[in-house]
Amino acid sequence: MDKFTNIMNELTTIFTSNANSTIKIKQEKFLVNNFSFYGILTSKRKPIVKPVITNCNKILTLQEKKILFEKMYKQPNREFQYTAIEFLKFWWKKNLTFNDLNWLLPIIKYNIWWDTTDYFDDIFGVLIFSNDDVKVRNEYLFKLINDENDWIKRIAIQSQLMFKIKTDIDLLLTLIKPLLVTNNFYLIRSIGWALRNAALINPTKINQFIKENNVSKKIISVINEH
To answer: DSSP 3-state helix, strand, coil percentages of the chain (rounded to 5)?
Structure first.
């Protein structure tokens, strides 16, 4: 048995031995029965898996960490995706570069939804803007915003949410302009949040953008939320 099989078996044993059918039903209902759960609350799951993923972070090479992340992430039960994300948080900042986005993007599309998407905004934002070649990084953002998957569009929109004064507002407005007509609730939320943050930096430009593009009341209501 290889090391990955042992780790996956250890995690599976932890999850199955702590599964709760009542919690499982509630968790699956909360995500509209789109995904499977073992039935373990986050507050319980995190401490019982932390020793395993902490040890993996210490003993595995970078390539092995990437393999394990993918193996965990592509398991059907949601607890595995959440644990994979927590494992990734240990090492991505010091180890991943812009070039790793081509590895990461197809993985996170597995069973993607709002509960996983929003964990990757900062990761994609930091890695994309770490590339000093403006043309290359902008091309990558346009690749995301034109992806057929709306969740990937959401990542593109939200990739600068934490950038504050470093936000490239002109680029942001260019990205979201074609999506202003969307009826997708989650994209409307993303656009509203992005414009609200940008308005804190340059309110004149954002107000002008809103007026010139007849931004919908739904988006404006998100902008005006407190």
So the answer is: 75, 0, 25
